[in-house]
Structures are given as C-alpha cells and as structure tokens.
C-alpha cells in the first residue's frame, strides 16, 4: 500500500501583503496540487490523503472551491481523500456541502463523517473530520473502537495538534488536540496528520506532512509531501518527504557593525537558495552603522530585492554617525549643528525608543538631503 | 571712499561744464530747486563709476543734452585707501575714460573702466552699481520708501563682512536647499496645521486604512451573520431529525388512539346511567302526585270538620257581643245629660267673674281721675305764674347793648367836658379871713382856697363889693359837650331809663325774676312731667290726655253695666271677684271631667259595635269556606275516594324504589369525573402534540430551506477569503500609515531643528547689523527694534512691545526706517574698511517737521563714519540739516 500524505493546502489564501506577488503565491498553491498528483503517479501511489485545511477559509468562492478539484480531476488514476480541517471545518452550509453540491469527480472523495472507508489493497481509512474550528474533544479517540476487517491496514487521517509546539501553557486549553499516542492506542498502521506546516515525525507511525507550499517564514523552506509505503498491517511504514513547492522561504538574521561582510553573506544566500529568483527572503538585521554604511546597506538591499522573488527586511539598526558622516553633512554652520543635535537626541536615554528612532530617521534624512 | 569732485558737461541741462563745489567727508547737502539737475548729476556719478564708457545703454543715452551734439563728460574725484583718484569719462561721443591716481594716469579706456572697480573692490566685470553696495546705499529719487533689499552681491559682501566676525552660521545655500526640500516634502503630505493633505500620500494611506477598516467591519458583520445562520441551520437540522423520528411519531399516535377508545367507553357508561336516572326522576314524580292527591283529600275532610266547629263558636260570640253593645249605649246617654247641666252652671259662673272684674276696674279709674284733676289744677296755676314772671321780665329788661350805648355816651360827654375844662381859665380864689363868707363863686361861698375852672362864664362875687365874671373864650368844646349830652339823652331814651344807675338796677331785677321763673318751671315739671324727650305735647297736655283717658275708661265701665250706683270699696270688690273665680274654676274642672267621661263612653260604644261586626264577618267567612269544601267533595262520597287514593300511592312508591336501585347500579359503573377530565386532557394533549409536531416540522423545514438558501448565497460570496484579504489589506495600510507617519515625524523634527537652529544663527548673524542700526533707530524711535531677515530686509518694526509689519507702516515711517537700514549697512561696511558714500536723492519727502529734524541728527551721526551726500529740492525744510552746502556752478576752466 503506497499513498501520498499531504495537508494544509489552504487554497484561497490572499497574500495581499505581498502586493503584486500575491497572485503568483496563489497560483503556486494550485501548482502544488498538480505537483502532488504528479508525485503520486510517479511513485505509484493510488491515493492522496489530504489531512485537512484544503481551503484557507470555510466560506471561499465557488471558483476557489473548484480550482483544486479541477487540478485533481486531471489525475483520474489517483484517489484524492479530502478531510475538513480547522480552517474549513465541516458544518451545515459549509464548503464541503457546497463542494458536493457543485459536483465532484469520481476520483475525489470528501470525508465529512468518521465512517471507515475502504481504500483497496486491504487498507481502511479512518477519517476524523473537524466539524468546528475549535474542537475540544480528541476526535481520533473513536478510532480506538472502530473495527476494521481482520488484517486490514488501518490508516488514520486527522487534523489537529499533538503538542502545543511551543505555545505557552498559560494560553488556555489548546483546540483540536490529538493524542500523540493515538496510532498505538488505535492500532493504526499510520496516522496522517495535518495542521503543523512543517514536515515532522511524531512517532514511528505518526507524521505531519507539512504544507506543500509555505506561506510564511516560520514554516519550512520548501513545500513538501510525504510518500508513504506500508507493506502490510502491522508493518512499519516507510515515509519519504518529497519537495513539491515552487518557492523557497528563508530567514537570515544577523547584526552589522559595518558593511564589509555583506558580499560574503550574499554569496552564501545565493548558494543555499539557488535559484534565488524563487526565494522569499526575510532579513532581520540589527547592530549599528554609520550613516554612510547605512547608505551602502540600503543599496545592497535594493540590489538583493531585485534578485530574489520577494524580500522583506526587518531592520533594528541603530544609526551611529561618525565624524566623516557629520563632515559630509557640513563642516560648520546650521546643518552641522542640526546634525549634532539630532545625533545627541538619537542617543538621549531620557527619550523613548520611538523618539530616538525618529531622531535617527531625521538625521538620516538630513544626511541624504545634504549630500544629494 | 569719499567723493571729492564731480563735474559734468554735455550732460542733461548742463550743456557747459558745471562743477559741484564743496564735496568732502561727512554730510554734504545739495539744495537746489526742481530741474536744477540734481538727479542728472546723481545719474552721471553712478554711470561714470559703474558703466563702461563705450556703452550705449538707454540709461547712458538719457545723459545726453537734448539738441546738442556734445559728448557727455563726467569727472569724478574720490579718495580711497589714502589715494586720490580722478576719473574722467566721455560717453556717447568722443568716448573715452581715464583714471588718474594721485595725479598720475593709471588707466585709460576700458582699463580705466575696470581699474575703477578694482579700486572700489568690486568684482571684475561688474557693470552696474546694483551689484555692489552702491546699489544699496545710493538711493535714487523715489526709491527711498522701498525697504533695503540688498542684491545677492551686496548680501554676499555684507555676509563676508559679518561672517568675518561671526563665522559661517547659516549653512549657506545647502542649508537653504535642505530646509526647502524638507519643507516641500512635508507640504506634499500635510497642511500648514499638520493635518493630512488631500492628494498626499499620508492622506491616501489614511483613507486606505479607513476604507479597509470599514470594509473589514462590514465583512465581519456579514460573516457573523453567516456564522449565526450556520449555527441556526445546525440547530434546525437537529430539530428536524428529532421531529421526523418515525418511531416517536408512531408511539405518540398509539397513545392517542388508546386514550380515545377509553374516552368513548366512558361516554357510553355515562349515557346509560343518565337514562336510568331520568326514569327514576319520572317514577318519583308519579309517586309525588299520588301521595299528594291522597293527602289533599285527607286535608279536605279534616278542614270541613274544623270549619263546622268554628261556625258554632262564632254564632255564640255574635249574640254576646250584641248585648254588650246595647248596655254601653245606655251608659253613654246618661253621661251626656250630666255633662249638659254642668255646662250651663259654668256659663253663669263665668258671667259673675266678668262683672266683678269690671267693677274693680271702674273703681280704680275713678281714683285716678281725681288724682289727675288735682295735679292738672296745680300745673295750670304754675304755668300762669311763670307767664307772669316772663311778662314782667320783658317789661323791665334793659338790653346789654343799650347799657353799653349809655356808658359810651357818658364817657364821650366826660371827655368833652374834660377837654373844655382843660382849656378853660383856671381861677384860684383864696379867701382871706376877712373875706370869709363874702366871697361867692358860681353862687357858692368860698372859704379858704378854691380852684375853679371857668368852663362857662364864672361869676365871682366879692360880697357886694364886686362881681367878677370870668368868661371863657369861645370854643368848639361846647358844641361837643352838647352833642355828647344829646347822645346820652338818646341812649337813655332808647333804654327806657333815666339814668345809667336805673338801667343797672332793672338788670338786677330781671335776674331775680329769671331765678324765680326757673324754680316754678322745676315745680311744674315735677307735677306735670314731659312725657318723653322729643314729645310734641308738654306735661300739662299729657296730664290732660291722661285724665281724659282715665275718665273715658271710667265712663266705659259705667256704660258696661255698672248701674251707676256708688261702687263699694276696692277691697270688697276684690274679694267678690276672687270668690266668683273660685266658684267658676270648680265648675270648669267638673265640666272637664264630665266631658272626658262622655268621650270614653262614646269610644267604648264604637268599639263594641266594631267587635260585633267583626264576629259577624268571621261567621260569614267560615260559612262560605264550608260551602266551598263541601262543593269539592260532599260528605257522602269522601270515604270511598280516600281508600282509592291510598292504594294508588302505595303502587307508585314500589315503582320508584325499583328504578332508583337500577340507576344507582349503573351510576356506580361510570368512571369518576376526575378520571374523565384527566382522560380528556390526555386525549387533548396527545392530539395537540401530534398536530404541533407536524406543524413545527413544516416550519422547521421552511426555516431550513431559508437558512440553506442564505448560507449558500453568502457562502458563495467568498466572505472568508475577502475577510482575510481585507485584514491583510488593513495590516498593510496600517504599516504604510505607520511608515509614513514615522517619515513625517522625522521630517518634522528635521524641519523644526533646522528652523530653530537657523533662527538662533540668524540672531547671531544679524547682530552686527542691528548693533549698527540701533543708535539711528533709537534716535528716531526711542526703544524700537527692527526685525531683519537673513537677506537684511526689514520685516517689521517693534515699538512699545507691539510689532508692526513693515508694509503696514506709514509712508514717512517706511522711508525713514528704510534709510536707517541703509545707513546702518553703510556704517557696517565703513567700520570694516569698506566705506561707501551714502547718496540720497530727494529723500525724506514724507517726513514731518519733528521727524525730519531727528533724521537730520541721524544723518549727521551717520556722516561721522562715512560720506553722506543728500540731494534735495526742499531748501527750507533742510535749512537745519547742517553739513557741507554744495553748489552747482559753471566752470569755465
């Protein structure tokens, strides 16, 4: 028994914050569906199990609803099993009812009830669809008591959290909790999970597939799907992560005291994320620079922005004008005195951080104006 | 620089050579009338120093003397840097230029043009005075009102001079550019008040944020509605499943049918019981009727016997009552006779009493007639005595005014006599002892000494020896005495008396009579008092009336029956009356008793009559009843009928008791009322529950259809996607607003810091100018301060703490301030080795007398530092200006 385990497609996500790049990101999510289909065909997988959050919201447009279905339709030899997640929970009048009403291809099946479903090859799928965004019960618990034919491969399909994943304990009871030992308790051969956007193994038979196309920097660098093989009931599964995404997402965090290291850092980036034209890069830069160095950094960032698919910068750089900066503004006179006053203000501990930041910005503006 | 010489020829109205004489250091004053050529000389001086001699500008052409083909020649002599310069230039024709220094030619032609500028430290190539301090300090006619606005070159010169002291402070051109750029950038996004500006990026970002917020709020509201609909739909679906449960519906219907069957059985049992109970009621009615008929006949039989007994009793009572009534009638007749006799006796007694009373009254009236007659006689006598006294008083009375008239006449007579005596000769006769007895005066013997006034002729006889007659002189006093005497006589006659003494005596008598009269009147009042105050009759009349009334009463008594015989005494009469009244009272009591007895007897007689009649009526009534009862059932048929009715009643009772037993048995089989009510309620509840379920199911189906329609419609709108998209748009807009506001805050800080620094720098920069200007300004406007901008232009004047924009000052003040600024700048230059003469052409035209005097002080003060040349046509106004007096004179040499 071989199948592809995937989750968290979140079709319909807007990506407005990326401006004119948004459409490309939206298109990449649908491309990922096709990539998963191609992967299934290539790996001889008869089924693709989507462990929830197929859609980003529970009220998408019909076009959004149809778009992934139409991609799946093209892979008639693959059975697609869609499970409602917390983003697209199954409720009356919800997306799944609408989807069914719109008409599904024969190779696409929606699992909106926890009834076991035979997948063929002696395997039975035990789905645990979410019927609300925040479910306080562990819906996989019923898998413990769900009987399947003797010798059948039991595959669980669920969406939720097996751990808080670093969420503070004092944030209340986590929703959609799943017992990490569910696979063992329910005698599952494999528990396919969704919700966590990073590919992650929870146990010998429990995996998060990760998202096939990341949408944020704290998920994973590239979209992934899992090719799972189970020889027979009780046999350990083989799980192989495979990249299916279009864009790479990376974050680089560093401090600067000067701009001498920028070239080397750029070379590392280009090596690690070739081609950088598909790189969605976030730079978190701290430290302190002179104004002239800051100008150099700005130019470097500008060039980098032109190279990568998208660049987001979070600068917490302090401006520390040196003597040369001040002399470039003026040797004497009003401008020099203004620069001195702004510099002093930027370093005045009696002021708030915001006020000091504005003084730095003003000093930088003065520098740009005076040296233009 | 000090201009020491100026000569022109072929220039304007100066066809021939003319020289300005008197030029030197300090204040130079050229007073000349209009069209004397002052401005022409000023223009010639300017062009000679700053224009190239070969130039043909319009300004130079204006130098030309009209109608003459002469070169325009100008000579300017000046001192500079300790050297004496002489510049000679010819314009328009035979052009040329020479510059001599200390008498030696140092440049010729174009070189001379430029050598002058070098000598004056002007930039090479300078072709107009405007480019140098001259442009500032040489003020042409009509320009003195405009504020001193140095050209760029002049500012540069001034700046150089000042900055030599205070250094580079303003940031120069870059500072200006930075400030302008920052201000321009801010102006793109915000208004002058710092508000978002329409068309700016800030406003646009704020608008985008507001729009996103509004859209998001709207979407979330719609989503909330969708969420509510979904929740409601889920609830309805669960409700529909519950309502449509077939097992529950079947169980409900089964329960209802069982209840209905039980209710039908109960109704039938009730109906049977009711039917049996109806029969019981009918049987009971028949029994009542039979029993009643039997009892009625028994009652009739008993009533006939009782009536017969009553009739016998009543017959006896009627006979007894008739006898009693007859006896009572006899008693009444007897008592009525006795009563009539007593009435007669009482009438006689009443008459006796009446006569006794009349006699008593008549006796009393006779006594009163006698008493009144006596008093009336006395009163009449008193009235007559009083009348007599009154008559006597009238006869002898002398009025007081008559006595007064007598006394007055006597006084007048005495006065007349006194006056006559006073005027009469006084005669004193002293009789010697020998002549005693022999001397008579007015027929009276004189013994001793006697003084006599000879009022009338006085005869003194000395015995018979002689008769001496003293005759007084004729006088009016005699006539007066006669008149007084006549008046006295008249008064006495009028009073009816012979003398005043008589008159007094008669008044005393009258007083005595009046006293006597009052005594009599008092006695009369006692005897015959006036009846009442205000009465019309007096006391006597009242007595007469009382007497008449008493007499009338007496007469009436007599006429009423008294026989006219003498009446017995009063006591006898009273006793007779009392006895008569006692006899009468006894008869009255007896009469009343008899009357009461008669009335009682009459009542009793009527009562006996009524009782008799009542007994007779009762008897008749009983006899009628008996006849009626016998008519119903005569005596001969009553026994048989009684036996038959008793048998009917017994049979009816047996039927009733049998029916009652059966009805009780059936009623016991009927369910109780409570259980029937409960059963009915159950049937009703189950029926309503089934109906309600069906009705509710239909409603829920409709609601589900509606909700599904709404959810489907809204679900297809992609609300979730749009909400997420709008939330990101809002976040983006907020980020953008924050970035713009941060940028604007930085620009504002930069602008404010720049402005503040420039203001501080400007104060330092303009300090020397203000210092130079202050003595001149205070001479004119004590305590005033002028605000200058960095271009040395004056912005405002502050006097007494109040700032006034320069443009709002009066013409005269503006001109004065403008000249002061120029003088200050000139002084600044002069004190720093860059002295330039100040030339004022026809200035101070709007200054009043006071101000112009103070301006003269200012000019004199300024002239201590630099040369001052003042051209004016106002000779009289400038008489007190002082300084060098310049003249324009033809110069043949």
From TrEMBL, chain A:
Record carries keyword Glycoprotein: no
CDD domains xref list: MPP_Mre11_N (cd00840)
UniProt keyword annotations, A-Z: Exonuclease, Hydrolase, Nuclease
Molecular function GO terms recorded: exonuclease activity
Ranges annotated as spanning the membrane: none
Calcineurin-like phosphoesterase domain span: 1-99
InterPro entries (alphabetical): Calcineurin-like_PHP, DNA_Repair-Maintenance_Comp, Metallo-depent_PP-like, Mre11_N, UCP033093_metalloPase
Name assigned to this protein: Exonuclease SbcCD subunit D
Lineage of the species this protein comes from: Bacteria, Pseudomonadati, Pseudomonadota, Alphaproteobacteria, Hyphomicrobiales
Automatic annotation (TrEMBL), chain B:
Highest taxon above the source species: Bacteria
Gene3D superfamilies associated with the record: P-loop containing nucleotide triphosphate hydrolases (3.40.50.300)
Coiled coil among keywords: yes
Name used for this protein in its record: AAA family ATPase
Pfam families: AAA_23 (PF13476)
Tagged with keyword Ligase: no
Annotated keywords: Coiled coil
Domain spans labelled Rad50/SbcC-type AAA: 9-82
Coiled coil: 209-236, 332-366, 570-597, 676-750
Natural source organism: Rhodoplanes azumiensis
SUPFAM superfamilies, A to Z: P-loop containing nucleoside triphosphate hydrolases (SSF52540)
InterPro entries in the record: P-loop_NTPase, Rad50/SbcC_AAA
